């Protein structure tokens, strides 16, 4: 059965695993290699955690939508939510947290795993676009 | 989570969650804190059952090593590729000693 164009779940931490499972199913269907899938899942989970914890700040009525597409050698994930937008200063921060920090690594992990990060608001909906360049398959 | 020891002063802890993520991390942190009564300064964490870990799960391990104090050390074994990738991305593979087995982990902690 084909995956839905948009996979949605409640914005709760225990639901983030369902987003990851959807990504893995899409990745398999789109022939994404295992190494790239590790980075994609890490980035997705960190982004979704941020939406739950900061965007919705514990509100239980929010949702997160995920689309996964492959355009040639680029895998694109788009996360949509109706929570408080991520401040641009947070998204553009480049300093890695100190080694003894117990939190605050999410954005740095996303930036390490993903080649292009885009963020916009469309009609009151936050759209986080994460694009990763995939390795070209070996020549036949 | 199961624990054995301490063997010498090393506590061996098997982390028995599949995903050590933000949903699972608070419960694991509470169990680890309850397990550690202050006698062990070195911990060998067996992560072979952990197929995925996020930064919140990693934060639990950081809190654990801070709880052990300046003489404390943690080695991890059974690290699966997604978990290893997280350690490497965050440079915490320089803090937690990565071992390929229980005995190697104990040796690293004793060394």
UniProtKB/TrEMBL annotation, chain A:
Q: Which GO terms describe its molecular function?
A: protein serine/threonine kinase activity
**This enzyme's EC code(s):** 2.7.11.1
**Keywords, A to Z?**
Kinase, Serine/threonine-protein kinase, Transferase
InterPro entries registered for this protein in UniProt = Anti-sigma-factor_SerPK, HATPase_C_sf, HATPase_dom
EC class (word) = transferase
Histidine kinase/HSP90-like ATPase domain location is 10-132
Enumerate the SUPFAM superfamilies for this protein: ATPase domain of HSP90 chaperone/DNA topoisomerase II/histidine kinase
Any idea what this protein is called?
Answer: Anti-sigma F factor
* Organism this protein belongs to: Sphingomonas mucosissima
From TrEMBL, chain B:
CDD domains, sorted: STAS_anti-anti-sigma_factors
Domain STAS, residue spans: 20-109
InterPro entries this protein is in?
Answer: Anti-sigma_ant (IPR003658), STAS_dom (IPR002645), STAS_dom_sf (IPR036513)
Q: Name one GO molecular function term.
A: anti-sigma factor antagonist activity
Pfam families documented for this protein: STAS
Q: Which PANTHER family does UniProt cross-reference here?
A: ANTI-SIGMA FACTOR ANTAGONIST TM_1081-RELATED, ANTI-SIGMA FACTOR ANTAGONIST TM_1081-RELATED-RELATED
Report the sequence similarity comment from the record. Answer: Belongs to the anti-sigma-factor antagonist family.
| Name of the protein | Anti-sigma factor antagonist
């Amino acid at each position: 059965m084909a995956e839905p164009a948009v996979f949605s779940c409640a914005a709760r931490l225990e639901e983030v695993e369902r987003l990851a499972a959807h990504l893995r199913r899409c990745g398999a269907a789109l022939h994404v290699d295992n190494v790239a899938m590790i980075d994609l899942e890490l980035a997705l989970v960190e982004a979704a955690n941020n939406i739950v914890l900061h965007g919705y700040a514990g509100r239980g009525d929010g949702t997160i939508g995920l689309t996964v597409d492959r355009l040639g050698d680029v895998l694109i994930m788009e996360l949509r939510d109706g929570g408080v937008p991520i401040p641009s200063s947070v998204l553009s921060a480049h300093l890695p947290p100190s080694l003894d920090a117990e939190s605050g690594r999410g954005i740095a992990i996303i930036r390490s795993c993903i080649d292009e990060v885009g963020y916009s608001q469309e009609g009151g909906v936050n759209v986080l676009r994460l694009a990763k360049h995939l390795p070209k398959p070996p020549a036949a | 989570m199961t624990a054995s020891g301490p063997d010498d002063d090393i506590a061996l802890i098997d982390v028995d969650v599949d995903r050590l993520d933000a949903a699972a991390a608070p419960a694991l942190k509470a169990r680890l804190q309850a397990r550690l009564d202050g006698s062990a300064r070195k911990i060998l964490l067996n992560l072979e059952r952990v197929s995925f870990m996020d930064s919140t799960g990693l934060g639990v391990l950081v809190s654990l090593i801070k709880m052990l104090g300046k003489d404390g050390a943690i080695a991890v074994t059974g690290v699966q590729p997604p978990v290893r990738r997280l350690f490497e991305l965050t440079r915490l593979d320089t803090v937690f000693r990565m071992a390929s087995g229980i005995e190697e982990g104990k040796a690293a902690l004793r060394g």
